[in-house]
Write a structure and sequence with these properties.
Blueprint lengths: L2 H5 L13 H14 L12 H8 L3 H14 L2 E4 L3 E4 L9 H5 L10 E2 L12 H14 L14 H15 L8 E4 L1 H15 L5 E4 L4 H9 L6 E2 L1 E2 L2 E2 L4 H4 L4 E4 L13 H14 L2 E5 L23 E6 L11 E4 L2 H13 L6 H12 L2 H27 L5 E2 L6 E5 L5 H10 L2 E2 L1 E2 L14 E5 L5 H14 L2
The structure holds pyridoxal-5'-phosphate (PLP).
């Protein structure tokens, strides 16, 4: 895979269907236009970029585009690229219509998961977007604001999430929040008001998230986890739960993607019980060896709440996140947000809207994907050379990896690392209190160090490994 794959172009989530690459690709594109996921005027990636993303020959994509232009689904104009044709307006039939602990860097090195490389924040591009957005902003944008979130941001997010993450989104069902944690807090409150008592969680997870649900008065039983992800196919474990919180694209922290059968089982469970799936898509954009796994929400937008965040793709300090809600939940979530006192400021929302609309977000994500993929490859290579007994897993995506340790070694390795100024997390730290004791392992956040600190952090890690 060449470096240009990661930096060039725009993301588009597509799953070619049926037999034959070209016809499968054409059908996937027709379907995305037909269902309104790709709206008229949406610019598609160049044939070169999409071919690289899908791992197919460029001619396959170019031929598919050309045929769809001939059929009237797409238009191609020199200088403005290939776009969804205006006359193939989204017929919102079918799916769309029917379902009208922060990481603190200590002295030394930090390889705890949870943070992107903060030194890579795109300051210049963000400032350009802020200048443009604030110059154009109407006076009312500096008022108290609508708890729903700025319509400018909701509009570009709907296009971006549909295009890049396979989400069924329209601006009306998006609510802007102060990161995932805020979104989860609001959902916990709303579900409690709906008399939900339990939200099932994964047996390994971020304890901050269960604490937020507990504070909302909810119990948080856990689902078992194996090499295919969380056991959403065990209905007994979900009995009594009104919702289940999952990280389907890249389980946090073990890194397993949820198996397609388990994705289907989660949605089936929600449909048959009236429950909800809360999809935490915290790092879904970072997948290295093939196209990102699409959002689970695309399977049933009325039963899955999609939660996204700028915390991994840009920076957690922005406190910007978004929820794509079932229609029936929008009013209650907006009402819950209206009475709370934490909201994302309009200037930042407008800046993010401009940042996405200008293409700077796609460029940043693609260049960071390249950086993190390189670090992941360096981590794997360093382990093979300097700690060949250590197995590494969960590396197809995200900003962290799991390193298996000999039984009983986890605590002493974490302590030895701390003694040498290297901040690390063991896997046990993420285990649900009711989950059975598991393997000994480290969760290594290779995204966290700055570029200049990375080589030293990797070296320090190799030195503390048994
Ligand atoms: C599993 C998981 N979900 C969500 C988030 C993002 O949270 P927030 O948007 O509140 O910063 C993180 C960040 O570390 C995470 O690890």
């Amino acid at each position: 895979m060449t470096d240009s794959w990661a930096t060039f172009g725009r993301d588009l989530h597509l799953e070619p269907v049926g037999q034959g690459l070209r016809s499968g690709l054409m059908e996937a594109l027709r379907d995305a236009v037909r269902t309104g996921r790709l709206t008229p005027g949406t610019r598609l990636p160049s044939s070169r970029a999409l071919a690289a993303d899908l791992g197919v020959a460029r001619n396959t994509v170019a031929d598919a585009y050309a045929e769809l232009v001939a059929e009237g689904w797409l238009t191609a104009r020199q200088g403005s690229g290939t776009r969804v044709a205006q006359r193939s307006a989204p017929r919102r039939t079918g799916l769309a219509a029917a379902r009208s602990a922060p990481v603190r860097a200590g002295a030394g090195h930090n390889l705890k998961p949870g943070s992107p490389d903060l030194s890579a924040f795109p300051r210049a591009a963000w400032l350009r977007a802020a200048r443009k957005a604030l110059t154009a902003a109407p006076d009312e944008a500096f008022g108290y604001g609508d708890p729903h979130g700025r319509v400018e941001l909701r509009t570009v997010l709907a296009e971006y999430l549909a295009r890049a993450r396979g989400v069924y989104a329209d601006p009306e069902r998006i609510v802007i929040c102060s990161g995932f944690a805020h979104g989860l807090t609001l959902l916990g409150r709303v579900l409690r008001q709906r008399r939900v008592r339990e939200i099932a969680v994964e047996s390994y997870h971020l304890d901050l998230h269960t604490s937020l649900l507990t504070e909302a008065g909810l119990r948080t039983p856990c689902l078992a986890l194996d090499e295919h992800g969380s056991r959403t196919d065990e209905p007994a474990a979900l009995r009594g739960a009104g919702a289940v919180l999952l990280t389907p694209a890249h389980q946090f922290p073990t890194g397993v993607p949820l198996h397609p059968d388990r994705r289907a089982a989660a949605v089936d469970w929600a449909r048959s019980t009236g429950g909800l799936v809360l999809e935490d898509d915290y790092d879904g954009e970072f997948r290295y060896d093939r196209q990102p796994v699409g959002a689970l929400q695309g399977l049933d937008p009325e039963r899955v709440v999609y939660l996204g965040t700028a915390s991994k793709s840009l920076a957690p300090g922005l406190r910007l996140g978004w929820m794509v809600l079932p229609r029936s939940l929008v009013g209650e979530v907006v009402a819950a947000k209206g009475v709370s006192d934490w909201m994302s400021g309009s200037p930042d929302q407008l800046t993010l809207a401009e940042f996405i609309a200008s293409g700077a977000y796609d460029r940043h994500v693609r260049s960071m994907r390249l950086r993190y993929r390189r670090r992941r490859d360096q981590l794997v290579a360093a382990l093979a050379e300097r700690a060949p007994g250590i197995e590494v897993s969960g590396i197809a995506a995200g900003l962290h990896a799991v390193l298996e340790l000999p039984p009983g070694a986890e605590r002493s390795v974490v302590q030895a690392a701390a003694f040498q100024g290297l901040a690390l997390d063991g896997l046990a730290r993420y285990r649900h209190p009711d989950a059975p004791a598991g393997r000994d392992a480290l969760v290594i956040g290779y995204g966290s160090p700055s570029e200049s600190a990375w080589a030293g952090a990797l070296d320090a890690l190799c030195r503390v490994l048994p």
